[in-house]
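so the lab meeting is tmrw and i was supposed to have these ready like two days ago... anyway. pasting both below. for each one the top line is the aa sequence and the line under it is the C-alpha cells. i havent really looked at them closely yet so no promises
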Amino acid sequence: MNSFRGFKKALRRRTKQNHALVGAVPGSLVQHEFAHDSRARAIEFSRLKHEDRQLESAAELQQHLAAKQHLVRMRPRRTAGSDDATEASNLEAGRLSTSPPRPVTWLNIDGLADVELLKEIGAQFGLHPLALEDVVNVGQLAKSEAYDNNLFIILRMPHVTDQFETEQVSLFLLDGLVITFQEFNGDCLNPVRERLVKSMGRIRSRGADYLAYAIIDAVIDGYFPVLEHFDRLLGGISDEIDEDLPHDIPKRLHHIRADLLSVRKVAQQHRHALNTLLRERSSLIEEDTLLFLRDCLDHITRLIEDADTYRETCGELRELYFAQLGQKTNDVMKVLTIIATIFIPMSFIAGVYGMNFDSDVSPLNMPELHWSLGYPFAVLLMACTGGGLVYYLKRKQWL
C-alpha cells in the first residue's frame, strides 16, 4: 500500500473474477482456472455431542451425504402454511420428550475445483442449479434467495494482506443442515468452530438456523478488524504529515479511500441480503433467530458509518497534507523573497557603478570612480542598505 504501482496491481486483482461462459446453458457448472482443490469437512453436533470429521475422499463424502440426505428427508419440517396449534403441540411434545435432541450438521467445502462433487451435493439435497452456478462463478454480490427446501445466502468474507480483498462464501440452509462453500482454505469462522467444540453459549442447543446466523455474524464481524487496520494506517499517515511530507501520501490515501468504498459497498450488499431474509420470514428460521439476525443488521449499520467516517478522515488528511505542503512552499518562498529584497538594492548600487561612464569626457561622469576610498564607500553603502532593510523587516515582523 506504499506505492501507486501496488494500488494498480491490487485493482487488477480485484477485478479479475470467475464468471459464467458467454452463451453457456443456465445452471451449468464449469471448473475455472484459478479454482483451488476441494476439501470437505463435516461437523455434527447437538447439546450432548460434537463430532468433527475431515472427509478425505469423494467416496467417503458421498457416503456421508447419503446418510445426511436420509436424515433430512425423515425430519418433519414446519411449512409456511402449518397450523399454529399443531406447531405449539409439537413444541410442547418436544419439551416433554426425553429423547435426545436431533443433531445438526455443518458441511463445509474449501475449494471449488471439483465441480462433480458440487453436482453430487446438489443432487443429494435438491440444491437449485442456478444457485450452484453462483457458487462456482465467484464474484457474486452478497444476496439471499429462497428455494423450495432451502435458503441460499452469498456472503463476502474479508481478507487483508497488502490490500483489501473479499472471498465468496456460499451458504445453504436446510432443515438440520448447513452447507458452506468457500474459495480457499482458511477463514474467519474458527470462533464459530471453537464455540461448537467448547459448547459456548447456546449454539449447541439450537438448530441449523442459529448456526447459519453464527456464520453470518462471524463474517460481518470480520470487517471490524479490517477497519481497525485502516485506522492504524490513517494514524500513521497523520504522524507522517506532522513530521514530514512524503510525496506518496496522496496516492496512499487514494488507495485507502478506494478500499473503504469497497467495504461500504459490500456492507450495503449484506444489509440488503439480510433485509430480504428478514422480510421473507422463511419457515427454516425460528423467530428467536430472527432477533439475532436483526442484531447483525445493527452491526452492518455501524460498519457503514465507520467506513464513512474513515473515508472522511482520508479527505481531511489529504486537505491537511496539501495545506502543510502549501505552508512549506510559502515558507521557502518567504525566505527567497527576503533574500531578494535585501540584495535588490545592492544589485542596483552595483549596477549604477558598473555603467563605466568615461570621467575624462566630463567631470560629472562618476567622479567616485577616482576616489581613493570609492570601493570601501560602495561596500559600506551596500551594507548599510542591507542592514537597514533587515531592521525594517524585523520591525514589521516579516523576518
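ok protien two:
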Amino acid sequence: MVSFQMEEMLMKYQLALARLFKPNKYALYRTTPLRYIFLHLLILSTLLAAPAASQFLQSMTSLSQLIADKSEDIPDFTIKNAQLHLPSHQEKVIHLTYGTVTFTENDAGLASDQFTFSKHHIMIKGIDPISYHNFSTITDRASMLDALTTFSSSIYFYFGLIAFTLVMIQFFIILIKLASVSLAAHMAAVAFRRKSRYMNWLKITTFLLTPAVLMQYTGLLVPNTLTYPLSWCIIILLTCLAIYHLPVIKKTRQTN
C-alpha cells in the first residue's frame, strides 16, 4: 500500500516536472498539491546546498586523515597573541588524499589547501578565514591535536548539522525569490488583463525556478560570472511565457 502511494506520488511529481516543457500548460500548476510544492522546494534547496556540503565533508575527511595518518608531520608550533609561530619560521606542507594542509607564517597558503594555518587565521577551503582569537584553547601542537581528535570523533554529526543548516539557508533564500517573482508576475499579469491570483503564482513560480536553479548549480560546480544573470534571464523568459498563456479577462458588454 505504501509502495503504491509512493509510486503514485512519484508519477504525479514527474508529470508536474514535464509541464516545464509545455508553456501552454503552466497555468495547470495552480492545481498542484502543496506537498509537491514543498517537496520541489526542498529538492531545489538541497541541490544548491550540495556543493558547499560536499566541500565541507571533503575538508572534514582531510582533517580525519591528518589526525589518523599524518599527525607526526604537524610542526611543533605555538600560538601567542593570536599569531602562529613556527620552529625556525619554516613553512610546512602536508600532502593528503584530498589536497594539502599548510602551516605558514605568511597570510596565505597554497591553492590546493583544504586547511591553511596562516600567521593570523585558520583558513578552511570555501569558508571565510577564522581568527585564532576564536580558538583560545589551541595554543600549541598538543592542544590542537586534542581539539581535532575530539572534533573528528563526531565528524558525521557536525556534517549533518552543517548540511541541514545549508539546506535551510537555501530554502529561505528560494522562498524570498519565490515570493518576489510571484508578486511581480501577478502584477504584470493584471496589467496585461490576464486572469491571475497571487497564490496560484506561488505554485507556478516554484516549478519555473527549476531551470534557473540548475543554471546556478552549474555555476557552483564550474564558477562562471554569467550563470547568475543567465538564471534571472531564464526566470523572466519563463514568467513571460506563463503570463502570455493565461486566460484573457474578457471585457463586459455594457447594455443601454
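from a quick look at the 2nd one: Helices lie at 2-18, 34-69, 141-152, 155-191, 198-221, 227-244. The chain is about 55% helix and 10% strand. will dig more after coffe
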